[in-house]
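To the team - iron/sulfur cluster complex, inputs and output below.
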Amino acid sequence: MTSVQQIDSILQRAADGGRISPDEALLLYTDAPLHPLGEAADAVRRRRYPDGIVTYLIDRNINYTNVCVTACKFCAFFRAPKHAEGWSHPMEEILRRCGEAVDLGATQVMLQGGHHPDYGVEYYEELFSSVKQAYPQLAIHSIGPSEILHMAKVSGVSIEDAVIRIKAAGLDSIAGAGAEMLPDRPRQAIAPLKESGARWLEVMEVAHQHGVESTATMMMGTGETNAERIEHMRMIRDVQDRTGGFRAFIPWTYQPENNHLKGRTQATTLEYLRLIAVARLFFDNVNHLQASWLTTGKDAGQLALHMGVDDLGSIMLEENVISSAGARHRSNLQELIWMIRTAGRIPAQRDTLYNHLQVHWTPADDPTDDRVTSHFSSIALPGGGVGKALPLVEAH
Ligand code: SF4
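Output:
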């Protein structure tokens, strides 16, 4: 069989719902012509979602502290303990931000922060229970395995105990942050103090076993090889075969500003789009695939809708972590809906569980609240923007 015939045959099998091996995924990633690759991925999306609906979410990423002991080389957000620019928000500030998000129609908060040396399980119990008590309508889709390992270490308890306790306090699901690159070589190069990829997955597996589902991310463009990108996906797929707890896969591209890697490497839009398509074909056991318009831009985000994507992610009423490293794309409710509709799909607002909250079958069904928009990083403000309301809330 020639390699062209081999690629055709793999694409056909994957489009029909068959499983492809990591080697086959790598061959598609490096050698498949872009058009047939996208077509095959889109065929899988159509079969999974024949209604043509593409979802979006309204949520807010709220950071409780930028103090962190882990010093990842790609991170522009953290400050070392005792650094003059370090801050931690008091609970009332976090709750105030949650309240603003609720007023703007958010259904989810992503609470994320650094590995503060003093924050053990007790801190997170108070954080989640306070948010849940004040805003029971908000899903707490937050933190990641790194935070769970850190809090368990600070409190001297097992991973399992930490998961059980923060779930009881109100954590609904775990965001897939901190995955970066899971294979050892690239992970060591960019985050030498972080847990290994195997350990990251172990925490996810424990959480899934205790009924706490999650999403899984991937940060591409920090010098990893194509084979390592596919290996990252294989590691996640293997765990998913055992637990079924990953709801979505969300690749995004490294942003080069204000961090120690200094943009020496980056992923191109084409590499990103090809990876999106291969992910849709490779993950026969993960339901949702999300485009990251924040890092790749809205044009690439919309193109990804033709490469197998069924979810455009969040408006992100607030985002500080990736914005600090240079992601400058911003959007709003009307624009995300327009991107989905002009790609020939039907937009729908979803919740954290991917239930459709409102399907905008025609433009007459579109929401009109123009306050629902994403905001630039507020960490440039003293104290991480404490006390500052979202600008459009003030203006309304
Ligand atoms: S990515 Fe997270 S763990 Fe790493 S330095 Fe930044 S805040 Fe700390």
